[in-house]
Amino acid sequence: MTMEEIFHTVDSAIVQAPEGGMCQQTKTKAAVLCVDDDPQIVAVIRDVLCSHVDVFEANNLEEGRAMVLAHHPALVIVDRMIGNEDGRTLVPFIQQCSPKSKVMVLSAYPGTGISRDSQPEAYMVKPVSPADLLKKVEALLN
């Protein structure tokens, strides 16, 4: 996906939800960026959150960095492993470039393994139930 396509998708007023559902984006909802290379995980996160927040997506760390810089989301949910890259490297980038954005790392691996000076606000081990995900996101945004 080109950067132009990324920003066109982000600027769209409607986000496609799984199985043809639609989630209307509004200016009053908080923006949440999901950075994950697994389309099924992204679809679940979008489906769980889209009626509560505006959900944006990035499939790799490069797209994630661009989306953070362009939109300064209230929350970034990032997978620990994105392809061969470590999603945790996005944490200090977000903290430096978008200091008001909160970060939650989702991982199949227990323990953050992140230096003390760049800890995310939350770390959840997969699998995560939809109810637990929503509860954690609401807590982070309030």
Protein described:
The chain has 142 residues and is of the alpha/beta class. The chain has a single domain, classed as Rossmann fold, CATH 3.40.50.2300. The chain is 36% helix and 25% strand. The strands form 3 sheets. Strands 4-3-5-8-9 form a 5-stranded parallel sheet, with helices on both faces. Strands 1-2 form a two-stranded antiparallel sheet. Strands 6-7 form a two-stranded antiparallel sheet. The radius of gyration is 14 Å and the shape is globular. The termini are far apart. Mean pLDDT is 81; it is low at 1-21.
Write the layout of secondary structure elements.
Layout: H1 3-11, E1 14-16, E2 22-24, E3 31-35, H2 39-49, E4 54-58, H3 61-71, E5 75-79, E6 81-82, E7 85-86, H4 90-97, E8 102-107, E9 122-125, H5 130-141
Parallel strand pairs: 3-4, 3-5, 5-8, 8-9
Antiparallel strand pairs: 1-2, 6-7
Helix pairs in contact: 1-3, 2-5, 3-4
